[in-house]
Amino acid sequence: AFTGNIIVDAGGSFKMVAGHNASFAQVGHGGYMDQGGGTNLNVRNGYATLSGDITIDVGGSFEAYGGITDNFAYAMVGHGGVARTAYGVDALNEQDQGHHGNIVLNAGGDVTFRAKPEDGSALGDVTGNSNFAQLGHGGYRSAGDHYGAITVDTPGSVTFEAGDAGWEAYR
């Protein structure tokens, strides 16, 4: 298991922007294809539980944007990512088979998760798939029984926006 609490404290605004082809922005353990490339169940190839509380305090707005083109360009607050599986961990003698921990997001302004590029690219500009924005544990092909309380506190608005074709939004 990989564990540890994560705290982000920003006096102003906080922005997470994914880029092109497997470039991602993530606050949490794991990440894109964090598997190590092997087939044995061990901590090198992603078959392990990720855990710990995540707390983000920002004085202004919080924004997270998915990628522009190609595949697996995502913005995520949570443990997991792409193909960060938590099932099959019996071989590691782990009790939990899911990424877990509480997530608290406090913002002084609006909270926005968009599974679209920040620059507002048109759908025709997106050539890949599996670009997403997510608040919570798991992710694309990150199987397991993920859990934890999610709290968002803001005086502003909260927006989750999915896109077409290669864009997805999870929460």
Can you put this structure into words, describing what you see?
- The protein is mostly beta strands and 171 residues long.
- The chain contains no helices and 17 strands.
- The strands form five sheets. Strands 2-7-11-15 form a four-stranded parallel beta sheet, with no helix packed on it. Strands 3-8-12-16 form a four-stranded parallel beta sheet, with no helix packed on it. It has a four-stranded parallel beta sheet with strand order 4-9-13-17, with no helix packed on it.
- It is globular and about 40 Å long.
Summarize the structure.
This protein has 171 residues and is an all-beta fold.
Please describe the biggest sheet, giving its number of strands, its sense, and whether it closes into a barrel.
4 strands, parallel
Task: Please count the beta strands (DSSP E, at least 2 residues each).
Answer: 17
Report how far apart the termini are. 24 Å
The ordered string of helix (H) and strand (E) elements is: EEEEEEEEEEEEEEEEE
Keywords:
17 strands; 4-stranded parallel β-sheet; mainly beta; 171 residues
Layout of SSEs?
Layout: E1 2-3, E2 6-10, E3 14-17, E4 25-27, E5 30-32, E6 50-51, E7 54-58, E8 62-65, E9 75-77, E10 80-82, E11 103-107, E12 111-114, E13 131-135, E14 138-140, E15 150-153, E16 158-161, E17 167-170
Parallel strand pairs: 1-6, 2-7, 3-8, 4-9, 5-10, 7-11, 8-12, 9-13, 10-14, 11-15, 12-16, 13-17
